[in-house]
Each structure stands twice: as C-alpha cells, then as structure tokens.
C-alpha cells in the first residue's frame, strides 16, 4: 500500500514530459502541500533539465520503475494514448490515484478496464478535460443552466485547424496507437465541453462521416514541421470528422473537427446554441492573444432580438484540472464519484461515431 492521503505532503509523480506533462508538473509545483517526488520519460535531456528546474531527483526512463517508489500517492499520465490504460491500471492496482491526459484510452473497452481498476482499488481516476474550465465556457454554462435563454434544442460546436496535424508520421497518425485522428484527439474536448454546457444530456444515437484527404499526402502538418510525403504510409487516421448526435428529449448536437482542411488561417474553436427563449455563441480564435473568446447572448427584448456581449474572466486550464484532482484525492468521500466514468462515456460516444462513419449508418448507443 502506498502513502496515505492524510499525510501533510501529497507525493506525486509525472509520467511523460511532453507539453501536457510539463503543464501538470508546473501545476503541481504551484500547489501547497504537494511534492513532486519523481519523473519518468524516455527523453533523457528532458528528465535532466526538468528535474533540475523543479528539484526532482528521482528520474526514471521507465514508468514501471517510477511506480515501484514507496509512499507514492498519485501520478499524472501524460503519454501517448496507447499507454494510458496499461500505466493507469498498474498505478491503480498499487493503490495510486491517477490523473490521465485525454482521451481516457484508445476506445471504450480500454477505458472500461481503467474504470473497473479504479473501482476495485477505491482510488480516483480523472481525465484532463481542461477546456470546460475556461472562463468563457464557464460563463456560458451559467447562462444556460440559469435558464436565461430557455431550453436548448440544438447546438453546433467545432475545433477546426487549417494546418495542425501533430507530428506527421508519429503515433498520433497511427490508428493502432492513437485510436483515431482529430475526432478522438481534439474532438473529445469539443464533445466534452458541449455536453457540459448542455447539462449532460444522454446521447441516444450518432451519425458520423470522416475524411482523410490531406494527411496521407503529407499535407497539413503543424507549421513547425515540413510536410514530408514519405511519411504518408504512417497516416491511417482521419484528418476531418463531422457527427450529428441525437440527444434524449429531442435535442441535437453537431460536432466538426479537423487537423487539416482548406479554410481561414486562424484556428477556431466555437460553440453555438439555439434555445426556446434565446441563443448564444462562443468563438475562440487561436493566436488572437485574447485570454477569452467572444461570447454573445441573443435574447428577446420587447419583441426584438437583442445581442449582449459578455466579458468573462480568463478561467483555468491544466492548473485547474490538477488542482481539482488534488482536492479530490485529499477527500476520500469523493473518490467513488471520480472513477473515470464521465470520460468513459465520452469514449463510448466517440466509438459510436467511428462505427457510424465506417458502416455508413446511424448508430444507437
């Protein structure tokens, strides 16, 4: 059994030190009563530099070695998707709480095994859905949940990149290791904040279409990369996806997501909702320099549609995810409520979307 969460210092490890892992590491370092005791990554230079920066002396190139440390309370898992399940399950079986990067796993079956492990161990399993913690998303959630625009009956959301395939030819573009393309990578964020904003309605069926037109030709890599057509054999995921979701009670949600598509150069993440007494739209433009997106509410005033701009606070990101995770770990009364079930539900919906696209039909959940 690992160290108890009643100890003054919560002892955590971070597995994976790419961009996401570095966000987790920085967030833990800012929290009182939390000690990062170990790091694990295959990149020796990152291990050494980040270990020195944050004063962490236990540095491992193998995650299995990190999990052997006595007294470990929690770990962040920020590694390629195909490693989420084996690492999380091994940690949970040792009594260690887990914060995993999204998506929970490559598919719902792997995610189910993670949730089952969390329940058996009686430990926390959470997945990092940081966009729902944005200030603009939370401001819109208050408008919708407060009934200001009435009952939502349709929403449309997207995250569209023009040139944003991550690491052409890497694990990201290999279905066996990633589980899919932009739908499971960034689309899961869109799905999460959309259902969150709509009050978590049950999805009853999906109808989806995917396309893979640019990536296989070496087109659409992130700006820091040079398109390399020789890597096309390693691209067997979609680079665009759209899905129509039927919601319990008669509502609907349309999602679009792309890694690469011919469009305006500025990447956009947005959410638009139509409701019985009004509507709202949130548009977030990447690279704009703004900490919040443009949030507009449309309501009826004396028989005319009026537009009201809301200026939300900046909100939180990975620091909020990590802070919430630590709070839940510190309170055993909340453990059973944070077993990864929400993220598993998202995975089941993504699975249904891929099945619908493959079979060319609507799929019931």
Could you tell me the number of beta strands?
15
Shape: globular
Relative helix content: 25-40%
CATH architecture of the largest domain: 2-Layer Sandwich
- Report the radius of gyration as a whole number of Å: 21 Å
- CATH fold call of the largest domain: Dihydrodipicolinate Reductase, domain 2
Q: Give the N-terminus to C-terminus distance in angstroms.
A: 38 Å
Order of helices and strands: EHEHEHEHEHEHEHHHEEEEEEEHHE
How many DSSP H or I helices?
11
Question: Quick one: biggest sheet?
Answer: 9 strands, mixed
Based on secondary structure, the structural category is: alpha/beta
Tally of distinct domains: 2
What is the CATH homologous superfamily assignment of the largest domain? Dihydrodipicolinate Reductase, domain 2
Overall pLDDT confidence? 93
Strand numbers in spatial order across the main sheet: 14-13-12-11-7-10-9-8-15
Assigned CATH class of the largest domain = Alpha Beta
């Amino acid at each position: 059994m690992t160290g108890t969460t009643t100890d003054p210092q919560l002892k955590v490890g971070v597995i994976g030190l790419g961009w996401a892992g570095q966000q987790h590491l920085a967030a833990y370092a800012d929290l009182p009563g939390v000690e990062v005791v170990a790091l694990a990554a295959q990149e020796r230079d990152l291990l050494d530099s980040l270990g020195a920066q944050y004063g962490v002396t236990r540095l491992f190139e193998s995650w299995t070695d990190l999990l052997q440390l006595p007294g470990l309370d929690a770990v962040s898992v920020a590694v390629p998707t195909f490693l989420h399940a084996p690492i999380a399950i091994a940690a949970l079986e040792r009594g260690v709480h887990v914060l995993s990067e999204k998506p929970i796993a490559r598919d719902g079956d792997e995610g189910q095994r993670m949730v089952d492990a969390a329940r058996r161990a009686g430990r926390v399993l959470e997945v990092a859905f940081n966009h729902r913690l944005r200030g603009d998303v939370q401001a819109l959630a208050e408008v919708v949940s407060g009934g200001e625009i009435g009952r939502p009956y349709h929403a449309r959301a997207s995250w569209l990149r023009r040139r944003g395939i991550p690491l052409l030819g890497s694990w990201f573009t290999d279905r066996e290791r990633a589980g899919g393309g932009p739908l499971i990578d960034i689309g899961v964020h869109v799905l999460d904040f959309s259902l969150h904003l709509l009050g978590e309605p049950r999805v009853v069926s999906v109808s989806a279409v995917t396309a893979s037109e640019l990536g296989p030709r070496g087109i659409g890599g992130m700006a820091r990369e040079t398109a390399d057509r020789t890597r096309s054999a390693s691209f067997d995921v979609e680079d665009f996806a759209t899905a129509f979701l039927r919601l319990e009670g008669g509502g609907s949600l349309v999602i679009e997501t792309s890694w690469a598509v011919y469009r305006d150069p500025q990447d956009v993440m947005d959410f638009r909702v139509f409701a019985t007494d009004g509507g709202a739209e949130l548009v977030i433009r990447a690279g704009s320099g703004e900490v919040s997106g443009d949030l507009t509410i449309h309501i009826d005033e004396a028989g005319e549609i009026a537009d009201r701009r809301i200026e939300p606070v900046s909100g939180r990101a990975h620091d909020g995810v990590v802070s919430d995770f630590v709070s839940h770990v510190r309170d055993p009364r909340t453990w059973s409520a944070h077993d990864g079930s929400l993220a598993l539900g998202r995975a089941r919906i993504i699975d249904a979307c891929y099945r619908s696209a493959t079979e060319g039909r609507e799929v019931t959940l």
